[in-house]
Amino acid sequence: MMLFFAFALTIGCDEPEQGRYDYKAPVSGSPSQDASPPDAEGDEPAAEDAAEGADAADADGPNAGDDDLDLRENWVVWPGAHLQWVSFDEGTTSITREGVDEKDAKSQTMVCNKPGAPVQGTSARIVGRWKYNIEDGVGRISARYYAGDQPVKEGSKRLSTDLSIGKAGEKDWVDVDKWIDIPEGTDNVRYCLAMKGSDGAVWSDDLRIEEWK
Questions:
Q1: Domain count, the chain
Q2: What backbone torsions phi and psi does residue 193 show, to the nearest 5 degrees?
Q3: Which tens digits make up the pLDDT trace of 36-88?
Q4: In CATH, what number is assigned to the domain containing residue 112?
């Protein structure tokens, strides 16, 4: 499972030039517990391509106390052993899993920007784009909420908001434009690209917070 405005950050080693996309109307998104992700309705891609709850759910994610991380200058891969499936090309982050064995197919690879974007309001508009080509698995991009390097939780569950979810199939670059509500106690927001399953690839580019309220 592992997977960065003047502050425009891409999940990746380099800051690309700020992209210009024809943004869709923003859709509001409230944080959810990782174990019960929100429905894909309102996300891009369309709901018929969205992962259903049990397939999409993963309660884990990176934080400062984890040993199994691969830390880089401005991004983190979790688990660290999954670094072999992660690559960066001119600021675009990708995860590619091919012929992954049954055990690893059940775990998620996640890449997140680090440090996160400092909170400047109670809600934020995240824009960017992503694409996927998945034969067997589930891909997603999400916003995850942190206080320092520790995830913000409700009970024992880490809070996150899905920006878009992709299941089996292929989708070329899709614009992301979504408002998210910032949970109490959050001081930075991270954008994460993730995938689990045996075969497929996901890409993200120029994810950033465009404005705050």
A1: 1
A2: -110, 135
A3: 333 333 334 333 333 333 333 344 555 544 555 555 567 888 888 888 899 88
A4: 2.60.120
